[in-house]
Predict the 3D structure of the following.
Amino acid sequence: MLCMECRRIRELLPLLAGGELEGSLFKDAREHVATCERCREELMEFGHQSLLLKSFPAPDGSSSVWDAVRERIDQRGMGSLPPAGP
Ligand SMILES: [Zn+2]
């Protein structure tokens, strides 16, 4: 079952993955996938590699939002994430 926020964010995921999201929508979507495992997996389907390249200032791919994601997950005790990249 998807909550309303998930439904809203899912519509944004293709744009987020394509780096076409801006401003508050970008922030909303990014923060949602940081806390919602199912939407995060959905985002992976669109290719999180391109997302990292286009949307986040993390040229080495080792920092930025994905570290923050893990941090949040750890704090919430929700388990672990799959590897963020190569
Ligand atoms: Zn969600």
The chain has four helices and no strands. The first helix runs from residue 4 to 17.
